[in-house]
Amino acid sequence: MDAERLLRRMVDQGDYAADEESLLAYSYDASGLEGRPLAVLKPRDEEQVRRILVHANQYRLPVVPRGAGTGIRGGCVKEGAVILDLRHFDAIERLDAQRRTVDVGAGVTVRELNAALAKRGYRFPLVPDDEEATIGGLASQNHITEESFLVGDYHDVIEQATCFDALGRHHLLKGADLAKAIGTEGIASVLLTLRVKVLPTHKLTADIFPAKDAAAALDALDSLPKKGALLAEYFDAAAARLLKLEGPCLLVAYANDDGSYKDREYVEALLAKRKGLEKTLWAKGLAAEEAALTREQLPAFLNLCAKEGWMCFGHLGGGILLAAVERTERETFWNKTLALGALPGGKHGFGRVKREYVPQEVKKMLLELKEERDYNGILNPGVLV
Amino acid sequence: MTFRREEDGRKGADACILCRLCDAGSSYGVTLDERRSLRHTVWLAKNGRESAWLYAAMLNGVGEKACPMSIAIDDAIIEARRRMAAKGLETKENREFFEKVRRGVNPYA
After folding, report:
1. Which of A86, A149, A235, B92 could make an S-S bridge to A107, C-beta 3.0–4.6 Å?
2. What is the CATH number of the domain that holds B76?
């Protein structure tokens, strides 16, 4: 019996698909990359995932874990791969009010999680621009959002996780092992469940501070009492105009009464507009490309944006700024950011699109991890390394 | 036929960025069948694909409301279905439906 026919037996009837339309539907994500997979499998429990991985390893079939396919770096598109659709891992359970954690399946979307948590008076803080993204997908990219200012990244909000490596070995990830798995974009393990931190629902107020530029905004941020501040977003004059604000400015939102803008509806609408800014730019033919910057790199980056005429905004509090560049100029941006010594990434992962921009020392670490967990190289080949 | 987007400046399927926000209210959330996702239906329309799955969308306007790109999703899908029908490629179910309408009997029976 050939490898493909055996794959059918790994999941329940109806959870295997290799028909033309399914392969087409799984041949793309939000990155614009396309690659027709070999088959799509939708496992419903851990044993099915384990069997698929063991089988794929035996026959050296490439396996690509996939959530909702909302990534913009092509992390879940691969010609000839077995797509492991993890959307059936959709349990939300064991909300621990004392520890403020909840256990979620990797296939739960942020919208689903926050809808369930809202009923209990909690929320998950790291909401991406696209709420239809899954927690597993976001953790595998180590996605950064506005509220990373307060809660950090996915390393900080995940307490523990379970996964299978490529050999079908089960791991309970904590501490250093967990840190190694976050942000590895499915190249060394398949995340199954995650224990994530949640916040109680709270008040919401905001301040908008005028600032000459991002460096001045950063100085203003330093002098702010950080207690209760959820996010700190910088907008240059052009970006502020899109939000109907006077810019350049620094927007700070608080989980208490500290802000001078106390109308919750207004603040929520403003934050929603901020969340939609990247998409607004895309509609104008621009791509919002991110750079992870140190304080020392900030002035040079601002000069670059000014020289190139790139609109600049972003998660100043989290050390990530974005520039609005022509879609055809993305590589120019990546190269010029790299030339400054900054990392042209840090928000959306690197995937297939930007794999050559992954720093060498990170690649070395990833290759070591791959050697340990996926020495046949079946998991998400072509991503990151 | 004048589509609404020509009147209010909304966009066609080619503006889709594949973000999936339109799927917040689609049957994909229940079936988890990517073929049934509204994103895929719009992708088919965007790429000029002729497929029976263009008929998976219910055209209830929920996806349109969620679309950050202001795409007139329902119009774009109807347009794609019309292109199929013009080539005689409508689905068997559709042909039967309209045949019943022509005969004056309940098309849903």
Report:
1. A86
2. 1.10.1060
pLDDT in tens, A126-156: 999 999 999 999 999 999 999 999 899 999 9
Report whether A353 contacts A338 (CB < 8 A).
no
Cβ-count burial A240-266 (b if 16+ within 10 Å, e if not): bebbebebbbbbbbbbeebbebeeeee
Tokens of A221: 């941020």
Token pair recorded at residue A70: 């909302």
Window A:47-86, CB contacts with B under 8 Å: 68-70, 85
Q: Radius of gyration over alpha carbons of chain A, in Å? A: 21
- Closest chain A residue to the Cα of B12, Cα to Cα: A283
Q: Are strands A82-85 and A63-66 parallel, antiparallel or unpaired?
A: parallel
CA distance B14 to chain A (A): 11
Pairing verdict, β A82-85 and A39-41: parallel
Q: Residue B90: which domain range? A: 4-103
Cβ of A132 under 8 Å from any chain B Cβ? Answer: yes
* Closest among A300, A344, A297 to A322, alpha carbons compared: A344
Q: What are the structural domains of chain A?
A: 3-85 (3.30.43.10), 92-200 (3.30.465.10), 205-339 (no CATH)
Structural domain contains residue B108: no
CA distances from A282 to A146, A247, B75, B94 (A): 19, 21, 22, 36
Taking only residues 55 to 74 of chain B, the set having a beta carbon closer than 8 angstroms to any beta carbon of chain A reads 68-70
The tokens 């973000």 sit on which residue?
A: B19
Contact A45, A28 (CB under 8 A): no
Question: 3-state secondary structure string, A82-150?
Answer: EEEECCCCCCEEEEECCCCEEEEECCCEHHHHHHHHHCCCEECCCCCCCCCCEHHHHHHHCCCCCCHHH
* A117 phi and psi angles, rounded to 5 deg: -70, -35
Cα dihedral A348, A354, A355, A361 in deg (nearest 10): -70
In a domain, B36, yes or no: yes
Residues of chain A with pLDDT under 70: 1, 226
